[in-house]
Amino acid sequence: MEMLMTKKNNTPKEILDLIKSSEKIGVISHKNPDGDNIGSTIATVLGIRENLNKNIFGIKVDYFPKDLMFLDTLKNIEEIDEQDLDLLIYVDCGGVDRPGDIGEVFRKRAKKTINIDHHKTNEHFADFNYVFPNMSSTCEIVFNLFREFNFEISKEVADALLVGINTDTYRFLYQSSGASTLRVCAELYDLGADKDFIYQQLYQNKNFEVEMFKNKLINRAKLFFNNKVAIIGMFKADFEGTDLTMDMVDDIVNYYRDINGFEVSVLFKELEVNLFKGSVRSKEFVDVSKICKYFNGGGHTRSSGCVIEGDFDFAVNSFLEKLKSEYPNEF
Ligand SMILES: [Mn+2]
């Protein structure tokens, strides 16, 4: 009973009242940024500023991904000096630790916290929570919340939300992307979201050098269980002498998952010696959030992350062992 109680969401009205009663508000999200967390941060900042005239800002906790630099509203996410806040809003954070050390600094100085998210492993860590694990993206939740608030939604907010929804659904492919997701996007188009420009920037603006580099990594993947599982290792040494960074190529994790017969694909990034961050994807039946939770991570059923300490072979072997123990009949 106790557990169920703690998992309860607050109502839109409770959340709106808390926002209204706060003057200085920070919005924060996770490290290793992507379209959904950047988009939902920008939309939350602008939507609340434009409609309620609050002193609100996005707090930068990591680099900006190159493919999102076309959003000039990125300037609303800044490096902010440590300070007291009336309210800290977490968006797209499966756990309170996802924004890293900067998040801790601001959390300690915030009077109240709100948690808006769609990660299955979210444990309702804030004072007020608004978590929908079946939603396609945090951006879809933010849109619905703004509708509940009766907010006007500007073109800038619509653009940011469209980026988040389109990227987090893998262009509407994932199961969590439903009819309601498409209806939200239809409304965003009506609100003036610049879909042609956004889609071209996101998907048809690839860099030749980056793509050739990806091919190299893809070609050296290790394949297991009769080509049902692919694991790619990406090491600091791979990037020596190049201008490239790991975040520019990490979408290669999707490559093998999308090939017939493959169920799981993994990208292990070497963060430092003997420390690997795993990005994990599945296609039909493996719940990768469960596997990743075992390795200090979590996320969604078909897309999750984890961290494994040890060398690359150890990371690969531990992962495969856990996968096999969870799905003994499949692998
Ligand atoms: Mn997300």
Automatic annotation (TrEMBL):
Pfam families: DHH, DHHA1. InterPro entries: DDH_dom (IPR001667), DHH_sf (IPR038763), DHHA1_dom (IPR003156), Oligoribo/pAp-PDE_c-di-AMP_PDE (IPR051319). Transmembrane segments: none annotated. Signal peptide: none annotated. Residues 241-324 form the DHHA1 domain. Coiled coil: none annotated. Residues 24-165 form the DDH domain. This is Bifunctional oligoribonuclease/PAP phosphatase NrnA. It comes from Parvimonas parva.
